[in-house]
């Protein structure tokens, strides 16, 4: 399976998957990488090459990546790596 460029449609697909299937991970991103330890609700809005945007308790927060993403596969690997690097995750 080849990787897709990070178009708006691909961003929407990633966000839908994350919000539908990995809501706890999105909230963990907001709490840890967004610096919002008290966050109660989070929803991924967009994934762009430089950062993801998350709506956290009604406010938009930008979480930068450690590098510029090149495609959908890079986005997947990066999001998984970010989640695994959180305290308490293997």
By DSSP (H or I, 4+ residues per run), the number of helices equals 3
Number of domains: 1
**CATH class identity:** Alpha Beta
Average pLDDT confidence is 95
Distance separating the two termini: 27 Å
Task: Identify the notable features of this structure and list them briefly.
3-stranded antiparallel β-sheet, Split barrel-like, 3 strands, alpha+beta, globular, 3 helices, about 90 residues
Description:
This protein has 90 residues and is α+β, with helices and mostly antiparallel strands. The chain has a single domain (8-84), classed as Split barrel-like (Alpha-Beta Barrel). It contains 3 helices and 3 strands, in the order ααβββα. The chain has helices spanning 8-21, 23-32, 72-84, and strands at 42-47, 51-56, 59-64. The protein has a 3-stranded antiparallel β-sheet with strand order 1-2-3. The radius of gyration is 12 Å and the shape is globular. The mean pLDDT is 95.
Outline of the structure:
Helices cover 41% and strands 20% of the residues.
List the helices and strands and how they pair.
Layout: H1 8-21, H2 23-32, E1 42-47, E2 51-56, E3 59-64, H3 72-84
Antiparallel strand pairs: 1-2, 2-3
């Amino acid at each position: 399976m080849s990787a897709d460029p990070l178009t708006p449609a691909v961003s929407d697909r990633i966000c839908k998957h994350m919000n539908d299937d990995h809501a706890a991970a999105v909230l963990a991103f907001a709490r840890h990488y967004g610096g919002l330890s008290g966050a109660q609700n989070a929803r991924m809005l967009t994934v762009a090459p430089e950062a993801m945007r998350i709506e956290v308790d009604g406010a938009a927060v930008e979480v930068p990546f450690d590098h510029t993403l090149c495609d959908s596969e890079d986005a997947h690997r990066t999001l998984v790596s970010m989640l695994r690097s959180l305290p308490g995750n293997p």
